[in-house]
Amino acid sequence: MDYAKSLSQRLAVPVSKCVSASASMTQQLLAGPAPPPRPFRVCNWDRSLRKGVMAPSLAELLRQAQTALALPVPIVLVLDEDGTAVETESFFRTLEENTALMALSKGQTWTAPKTRGYQVALSRKPPRRIDVACVTFDLYKTHPKDLGCLNVKATLYGTYSMSYDLRCYGARRLVKEALRWGLFTMQATGHVLLGTSCYMQQLLDATEEEQKEEEKSSLPLQNLLPCSLPALPYKKMLQ
């Protein structure tokens, strides 16, 4: 009988551990992921000691503040700017990061800061801005002999972005490309001027020919006839 009791007790221990572990895992899964820790500023009742702590919940914040400021338990947290008590987890979640808090132990009370506007600068952050357009310029080199490359990136409303990469090659290659484009431009300009001059010459020649034909057609008919008829022979006149 004693052996059977001891054997049942030995078997009951791992079973109870498995049950408790599975119950804790189920509770964690149902509770959801733990919130990430956030930064806060805490000080004592006379603001002579200030500390920065990280806490994901109100209970953890109370523990961190009590340890950092070395205060006797229990403590109460209030907003440093107006003395509003932080007592519930739901109100704690509404606090912004780097909010200034005051830890009060038994017998201590909140007092207004001596310098007005000091706490506003510490606990309140400026409203979040919405960037309409952001343009960045990135100048870099891919080779020591290169002149440099420029990357221009524009972001609209933090969502749509476009970029353009302007790469500048070495000085020798850059001069070659400039000369090549200059030669091509000169050749194209020469062809355009030559074609224009030939076309203008043809127009002038056609105009001169038309003027000559008009002058020939405008001559009077009498100019085409001889000025005097030749004299008849003498014998024919006597007859």
Automatic annotation (TrEMBL):
Transmembrane segments: none annotated. Keywords: Apoptosis. Residues 36-112 form the CIDE-N domain. This is CIDEC protein. The gene is Cidec. InterPro entries: CIDE-N_dom. It holds the Pfam family CIDE-N. GO terms for biological process: apoptotic process; regulation of apoptotic process. The keyword rRNA processing does not apply.
